[in-house]
Each structure stands twice: as structure tokens, then as C-alpha cells.
Amino acid sequence: LYGILKVDILNIMGLSLVAVAWTWGRARTREGRVLLAAAVTVAILVLTPLLRVWAWPGALPDFLEAYLRPAPNRSTFTLFPWAAFVFAGLGLGEWLAATPAERRGSAFHL
After folding, report:
1. What is the pLDDT of residues 73-82, one digit of tens each?
2. CB distance 20 to 93 below 8 Å
3. Helix/strand/coil (H, E, C) string of the chain?
């Protein structure tokens, strides 16, 4: 069971994709999805340094705490901040999908 719950990049990105899919379904319009994805991205980035210093995650079981912040003396991928990349990808993808095809290349490079 530990191997399945082990904190690694695949588990973090998998959980992030599930959260992104759920978030994507909450907004009815493309603009709403872009704004919601941007808001969640910013929230994750703001919460990341706070989670490193807050005491309450220490009350969680070690394997759950390791998903929120790195375990002492370990450098592992955690949901915070790495999930922000997936949410930023949702926002960027939705924004690019709304761009007309003739401008999509320049918008992508921008």
C-alpha cells in the first residue's frame, strides 16, 4: 500500500489532473475556466510558503503531510507548488483554444 501512496511526481501530477478536471467542470464558459484556473494557480502559489511554516500539517499522518510539504531532510515533489503548473496549463490551454487559428502560433509563443 505504501508504494501506491508514496509521494512522487506521478502521484502528484495524477492528483493534480483530477483536481483540474473537477475545476474545469465547475465553470460553464471558457473565460470562466481561464479565470478559475488562474485563481487556483495563484492560490496554490500563495499557500505554498505558508504550508511550509504552519504547524497544523504536522498533525496529519506523515504520508498525508508529505503530500502538502516536503518531509524533513527529503526533497520530494509535493502538491504545493507543483499542482500550480497543471492549473496554469488548464488556463493557458483554454486561452489558446479561444484564440483564432491564424493567431494561435503567435499567441502560443507570447
Report:
1. 776 789 999 9
2. no
3. CHHHHCCCHHHHHHHHHHHHHHHHCCCCCHHHHHHHHHHHHHHHHHHHHHHHHCCHHHHCCHHHHHHHCCCCCCCCCCHHHHHHHHHHHHHHHHHHHHCCHHHHHHHHHC
C-beta separation of 67 from 10 below 8 A: no
Sequence-distant (≥ 6) Cβ neighbours of residue 40 within 8 angstroms? 23, 84, 87
Please state the pTM of the whole predicted model: 0.83
Inter-residue contact 32 to 41 (CB < 8 Å): no
pLDDT in tens, 35-86: 999 999 999 999 999 999 999 999 998 888 989 998 777 767 899 999 999 9
What is the rounded distance in angstroms from the CA atom of residue 43 to the CA atom of residue 88?
Answer: 11
